[in-house]
Structure formats: structure tokens, C-alpha cells
Amino acid sequence: MSLDQVSWAPPLRLPGADATAGEVKNPCDDGDCRPIEGETTPFAQGTGDPHAVAPNDVRQGQMNNCFLVAAMSAVAEQDPGAIEEMIRDNGDGTYTVTLHQYDKGGLFGIGSGWEEVQITVTAEFPESAAQASGDVADDAQEIWPQLIEKAYAQLTGGYGGFEAGGSPADALSALTGESADSRPPGDLGFEDLQASFEDGDAITFLAPETFEGEAAQLAQEHNVVGWHTYSVSDVFVQDGVQMVELRNPWGSGDVTLPYSEAQQIFLSISDVPRD
């Protein structure tokens, strides 16, 4: 279970967000990172995947960062090319990952916005990191989710920072450089949700820590995990019922349910444009 926090305030500059290309600040403060055995590659197209980057490449490890891995899955769902553009193989065992940090600008916020920050990481990860996708190219296993996870940890002060959870909206913005919107599901009609998804927006749903009343019964019926973030993989109408399909970043436990019931269960929806 992941401890996620909802952020309704404007995004702030991420703590520790002074990393630049070539400046390696190892987020493994306790020295528990280990290199992956064998050859690695940022991207490998799995069997049946339409692209080298796919939402099912992302599988949460043992860290409380579903807010981040679900955001990665949401972006991979809508804009796999953006994920590929984020990572550069430097050819020396290091990779440069481009994330974004929020600059509040000068007086009255003039000049504020999301700015690129390039973070250099190595292919060494703790056992609790995101799991390998299992996709292989030329005997090299794919590691893009682990690289982005490590870069985000480095940007925000280390893997230990995931213990407190985080905001899916902030993660979406850090990945894309666009300000994400967050709102209660009751404030977003199905037609608007469907239009956003079909327009290419990366979207996540966050469940509350505890469920009350009818929401508790519905959450149990659909096996929705509390205090957990899901990415949207489809929005559709089936037999006249408005439906939403949500991907669990664990790699199992996906949820498909009527949107009217999702509106009762979930705490917030975060989305960011990818057009």
C-alpha cells in the first residue's frame, strides 16, 4: 500500500532540485544500491507491445511511491515518445534523465513555470526499487522505469523521501513540464473525462486512505486499494454504462468500473495535457 498525499496548492519548487547534468548526487544514502546483473538498455519493446515504452513496463516495487509510478504509467499510456525523449544513454554507464522543476519566478510570480532539470544517474538500484519490466532487446533488459524513479528520488532528496508519499499531480508535472490539474471526481463529468483522455491527457485517480459508507462497499466490490494511485488506461461506454479502466501500478489488480461508482470511491483525479 502506498502513502500518497493530495496537493491542492500550486506546485512548489521541489526540494533538492538543484541537480544538473554531470552532477551525480547518489540518492542511495544507505548504500543499498546494487548494479543490475547483465546488460541493460533504457528501452526494449516487449512481445505484443505497440511501442518500446508501454504502461505495462511500470511495476511498483516496495517503495511508497505509487503516485510516481502511476504517473509514469499514465504518461506512457498517452505519450510513449515523451518517455523516450526523457532519457539519454551517455555510453559510459550513466544516463541523463530530463525532469522538470517549478520556478516561482520573480516578484508577483513573473516568469514562473516549469523548467527542465537534467539529472545523471547510474544503473544501480535498491532491491525495493521499481521492478524490471521483463522486456529484453539484444540480451539487454529494459530499465527506463527504474532510471526515472531514481532521477526523481535524486531530484527530491533521496529514495527515503518516498516514505512520506507524494502528489500524483506534482509527479505528472515533473515528468511532463506541464501544470497538472487536480479535482474531486464529482467535479469532473464523464464527457469531460472522456474528452481529456481522447485528447491525450495523462490521468491518474487517487483513492482515499479510508472508505466510508457506500464507498466502502463499492471499494471492496471492485478491489480498490486505499491510499493508492491508479493510472487511466481507457474511458468508454459499454451497454449504455459510462466506464473507466484503471491500471494498478503493482502490475496486477487493475480495476474496471462504472464512472459513477468511481466518483464515489476516489478522492481526486489529476491530469496533464500531452498534446
Automatic annotation (TrEMBL):
<protein>
    <submittedName>
        <fullName>C2 family cysteine protease</fullName>
    </submittedName>
</protein>
<feature type="active site">
    <location>
        <position position="66"/>
    </location>
</feature>
<dbReference type="InterPro" id="IPR001300">
    <property type="entry name" value="Peptidase_C2_calpain_cat"/>
</dbReference>
<dbReference type="InterPro" id="IPR038765">
    <property type="entry name" value="Papain-like_cys_pep_sf"/>
</dbReference>
<keyword id="KW-0378">Hydrolase</keyword>
<comment type="similarity">
    <text>Belongs to the peptidase C2 family.</text>
</comment>
<dbReference type="GO" id="GO:0008233">
    <property type="term" value="F:peptidase activity"/>
</dbReference>
<feature type="active site">
    <location>
        <position position="228"/>
    </location>
</feature>
<keyword id="KW-0645">Protease</keyword>
<dbReference type="Pfam" id="PF00648">
    <property type="entry name" value="Peptidase_C2"/>
</dbReference>
<feature type="active site">
    <location>
        <position position="248"/>
    </location>
</feature>
<keyword id="KW-0788">Thiol protease</keyword>
<dbReference type="GO" id="GO:0006508">
    <property type="term" value="P:proteolysis"/>
</dbReference>
<feature type="domain" description="Calpain catalytic">
    <location>
        <begin position="34"/>
        <end position="275"/>
    </location>
</feature>
<feature type="compositionally biased region" description="Basic and acidic residues">
    <location>
        <begin position="26"/>
        <end position="37"/>
    </location>
</feature>
<feature type="region of interest" description="Disordered">
    <location>
        <begin position="1"/>
        <end position="51"/>
    </location>
</feature>
<dbReference type="InterPro" id="IPR022684">
    <property type="entry name" value="Calpain_cysteine_protease"/>
</dbReference>
